[in-house]
Amino acid sequence: MSHQAEFKVWRGDSDGGDLKDYTVEVNDGEVLLDVIHRLQATQAPDLGVRWNCKAGKCGSCSAEVNGKPSLMCMTRMNTFDPNETVSVTPLRAFPVIRDLVTDVSFNYEKARQIPAFSPPEGVGPGEYRMQQVDVERSQEFRKCIECFLCQDVCHVVRDHDDNKQAFAGPRFLIRAAELDMHPLDSRTDRAVFARDEQGIGLCNITKCCTEVCPEHIKITDNAIIPMKERVVDKKYDPLVWLGSKIGIRHD
Amino acid sequence: METKNGVDTPGRAPIAQPHLRTDNWRKAPLWTFIGLTAFVVYATIRVFTQSAYFVEGANFHYLSPFASPCLSDSCGAAAEFGTWGTFPQLIPLAILTLPFILLFRLTCYYYRKAYYRAFWMSPAACAVPEPRAKYSGETRFPLIMQNAHRYFFFIVVGVSAINTFDAVKSFHGTEGFGLGLGNIIIVVNVILLWSYTLGCHSCRHITAGRINHFSKHPVRYWLYQKASKLNGKHMQLAWITLGTLVLTDAYIALISLHPNFDLRFIG
Questions:
Q1: Does B87 score more than 50 pLDDT?
Q2: Which of A72, A102, A132 is the last residue in one of the domains?
Q3: Whether A80 and A123 share a structural domain
Q4: Do A226 and B11 count as a contact with CB atoms less than 8 A apart?
Q5: Which of A13, A94, A218, B239 has its CA 20 to 30 A from that of B93?
Q6: What is the distance in angstroms between the Cα of B156 and the nearest Cα belonging to chain A?
Q7: Chain A contact for B119 (CB, 8 A cutoff)
Q8: B22 interfacial to chain A (CB closer than 8 Å)
């Protein structure tokens, strides 16, 4: 079974653009990326769209579908009413390059700022030994495919471009949590880094990052809030500070 | 000239509409607004009117959680932990605990999400622009005080112990043991209050969340797993306990006005 569906696809670049109307064939079992490819093949050969795996694992085809940050390859067409007009725009938190393609280099800059995994002295590659139970929290965050939907939806930078300098965004706060919770990471300053350099205090835990994550990582509950609690340990809790000073608390 | 910020920032895709969401995104913040406002109005009225908060019979002893521990001379038999003189009308009978319960819920990670979205619209819904041009999150006073949540958690553990004492005491009236619908409501409320409190994110951190080697601390890890399980239902428990607090208080108010209405099973 197939039907003709209505779409509004944003076409343009940073100088200007518009939502253009298209009518495209939709077949049973298709996802939005299939339809965008059909549009490209039949009506708009110059449509700019970034994609790769078509399986929700590369994080390339991020866009905003009916205003919600989504992976086009994971957006099933049968979730829309056949008579519904579906809007497709580029991510709105990042500079646009053309059509549905945005410049996400902000994220790579933030990634580079994070101190790398630091194993204990004397433990070389191939010598890492750890219990599964100790490392499984960090493993949840390794599921991240870097689609940057969480970065796009986070109002701290989406609605306040001036915060981009101070705030790393949810993707890199889970990276901070991944490393800080890792049983073999020897750095003890990651929570302080999260506060002072990644701006974790700017997050007001409204959970949009969790809502849009295609890997269903519990970004807020399992990464950001635990990191906020670790920041409290290091910076705001006088009893923890006192305990560390008199030697009854060892972190 | 005003600098464009947010989705209108130069360089981003120039799209006329501030958002393109087509679903009913206003529904969730609206219901949150209504629910929290209704609770605050009810609790404020009940706390400050100081009436119908306690009833004692031959086989029951019901004290509202909004008045526990009752510390005024006017509490009579409801004063289970001594009194601090006669309170004027505007001083809550449970002045020792209510401010901390309020602060515990106000700094709770779930309620923060709820009221930031519903009351402050920061943001009202995902990918819907917030109305303010400037944003500093929880980095400045007063919101930096959200970091004190764990202290309120510790205090509220004590408050939950008092609620537990009240629940045990509710079975014993002037003439002995009894069981009525009021006891069941009070006990269920206390169980749910413990579930909400022990599922708190700070509790999860304190049990073992802050350590990196669970395998070296099996007891703490076991506690962490239990706290995590409750934490998964933290939002639901946050709402359910608001409901059971109101239900418990309203039932006790009803029985204090009409003692014979209590459905009795024993005694």
A1: yes
A2: A102
A3: no
A4: no
A5: B239
A6: 18
A7: no
A8: yes
Give the span between the Cα atoms of B92 and B99, in whole angstroms: 10
Give how far A48 is from chain B: nearest CA, Å. Answer: 13
Q: Flag whether residue A164 sits within 8 Å of chain B, measured between CB atoms.
A: no
On whether the CB atoms of residues B94 and B66 are closer than 8 A, the answer is yes
Residues 160-199 on B with a CB inside 8 Å of A are none
pLDDT class for B2, splitting at 50, 70, 90? very low
Nearest CA in chain A to B217: A134
Closest by CA to B245, choosing from B43, B54, B48, is B43
- Taking only the tens place, the pLDDT of each residue in A44-100 is 999 999 999 999 999 999 999 999 999 999 999 999 999 999 999 999 999 999 999
Decide if B205 touches A, using CB distance below 8 A. Answer: yes
Closest CA to B194 of B221, B156, B225: B156
Higher local confidence (pLDDT), B90 or B162? B162
Q: How far apart are the CA of A193 and the nearest CA of chain B, in angstroms?
A: 15
Give me the mean pLDDT over the A112-141 stretch: 95
Nearest-CA neighbor of B20 among A101, A85, A204, A216?
A85
Cβ of A206 and B117 within 8 Å?
A: yes
Chain A: residue nearest B140 by CA? Answer: A201
Phi then psi dihedrals of residue B199, to 5 deg: -95, 5
Among A46, A81, A102, which residue terminates a domain?
Answer: A102
Q: What's the CATH number where A70 sits? A: 3.10.20.30
Length of chain A: 251
Question: What domain count does chain A have?
Answer: 2
Q: Do A76 and A182 belong together in one domain?
A: no
A132 within a domain of the structure (yes/no): yes
Beta strand A2-13 with A85-89 is: parallel
Domain ranges, residue A196: 105-246
Return the residue of B nearest to A231 by Cα. Answer: B147
State whether ipTM is beyond 0.90.
yes
